[in-house]
């Protein structure tokens, strides 16, 4: 049961460690195996795991004892009684240490409230300490048989003292380092040392190369500074030359400005004469334009008059055509009316003729029927007379 608790508590020490994603040349630094192969190494790791596990449990005893009523249901009667016994022994030991004169206990040396040693003449203090240790062992033994209680104590880890957290962290780190060392064989350790020595030699060589490169860089920077100084001197000479050139060009500019002003005055006079001439030409052009404009207006008026005359003639012709159209329309209406009357008379005559033809046909039929009946009657009479004469004979 104890091994199962320890394994469930610390199986992540190996499996949860982040795997190093390193390049192939550095794989030699990793252990050659992932699991321990010998019984001795497994025992070493199991002892260290058990120690860490016990420290985790013992570090929360004080919190459990202070809140024992809350954990009674989880701990059970055996563990609850063991914790109460542990509390009793702790109180006795604390009383003995706080009243040493009553228990014949002497302190050997002290500094700033911290005692360095004790002299127990009766041996009673030693018995109490042994009893307290036995109580701790008994509680741990009972916890190993109660998984639920162990889990409850582990969940109270937030109540630990920071120094205990630091101790557990250091032990876990030491456990990982020791586990990695136990996975490495002497041959692998030798190969690792050789590889690290080669890396150190390469690093040393690279350092020397970097130093040489720094020297070369310093020399290059110095050469660059010298070139910059030379260029600065050239720039200074050019500035002096430009200053002298500016002084020389100033007088040249004044002469050029005077000549430009003189030429400007001459051009102004010439332009004034040209402006006068252009104004005269402009007046002539305006007079020609006005005459041309007047002629153009007269031509437009004449065109409008001609256009008006033509439109009036067209309107007169249109009136005559309308009058002629009205007359023709009347004649057409009369012709249509006459045709309609004639058609009505014709239709009426045809209807009367049809009635007469039907009446004549009916009369003929009646007459023919009458003739047929008359002939039949005469034939019947003749037959009757013949029969009578034959009967008489």
UniProtKB/TrEMBL annotation:
Organism of derivation: Ophiophagus hannah
InterPro entries with a match to the protein in the record: DRC10 (IPR042815), IQ_motif_EF-hand-BS (IPR000048)
Quaternary organization: Component of the nexin-dynein regulatory complex (N-DRC). Interacts with CFAP52.
Function: Component of the nexin-dynein regulatory complex (N-DRC), a key regulator of ciliary/flagellar motility which maintains the alignment and integrity of the distal axoneme and regulates microtubule sliding in motile axonemes.
Protein name, entry field: Dynein regulatory complex protein 10
Keywords: Cell projection, Cilium, Coiled coil, Cytoplasm, Cytoskeleton, Flagellum
Family matches, as CDD domains: IQCD (cd23767)
Coiled-coil blocks: 268-302
Subcellular location(s) of the protein: Cytoplasm, Cytoskeleton, Flagellum axoneme
Family under the similarity heading: Belongs to the DRC10 family.
Entries under Pfam families matching the protein: IQ (PF00612)
